[in-house]
Amino acid sequence: MAKNQQNTHPEADGLDLQAQFGKTETFITENQKSLTIIGSVVVAMVLLYFGYTKFYLAPREIDAQDNMFRAEQYFEADSLDKALNGDGNYPGFLKIIEDYRGTKSANLAYYYAGVSYLKKGEFQKAIDNLNDYSAKDDITGTTALGAIGDAYSELKDYNKAADFYKKAADKNLKGFSATYLMKLGLVYEELKENDKALDAYKKIKTDYADSYQARQIDEYIARIEAKM
Question: What Pfam families does its record include (predicted)?
């Protein structure tokens, strides 16, 4: 008895592929104008993006960097008013933010401005600027979180301070996490959450035993345990 011949029809599992291809061809034919317009718009958007980046944003980035170096020098020298507002010849961080939005320099200026306001005791302005900063590296990302925690702590908003100290400590950045765990423990003590304070102090002892904070942490642990 002859073997059944293989099915040569373009059908698989009940799916008529030829019919489907026909539908696709019909759709393309009927909508060719719309598809062409869509394709042209996509190409135009790509070209605009690269043109914006190369011919507009890149020169502005260079200009922003050239103008910002003096503000950074004032920041390092703790001349915070000049760092923020400029010296009459060079702009400060606030002007960099205003004039060069979208550049890396303007983004970094938010960080510098936030820390400057923190040092000046203008804590809400510090929070606002640091929240606008988009961190590009672990160190400034961690210290920005910690600085927001410091500002909230100064404002006696200990719940928000604890949130930001915890975020900073959770970055597990050597040289920083133990500092923020210590601050976290202290604000938990202010909140009368002694169990959480004890956890923060014990984490310093176990995870950051070689830190400066670990040298005196037993005293903090003993103090908390005496309250519980």
Answer: TPR_16, TPR_6
- List beta partners, residue 12: 15
In sequence order, what E strands does the chain have? Answer: 11-12, 15-16
Please tell me the distance from the alpha carbon of residue 196 to that of residue 189, in angstroms, as a whole number: 8
Token readout for 209 is 């035993």
pLDDT tens, residue order, the chain (228 aa): 444 444 444 444 544 555 555 556 665 666 666 656 555 455 445 434 434 444 355 667 988 888 999 999 999 999 999 999 999 999 999 999 999 998 999 999 999 999 999 999 999 999 999 999 999 899 999 999 999 999 999 999 999 999 999 999 999 998 899 999 999 999 999 999 999 999 999 999 999 999 999 999 999 999 999 988
Give, rounded to a whole angstrom, the gap between the first and last alpha carbons of the chain.
Answer: 91
Structural domain range at position 208 = 142-228
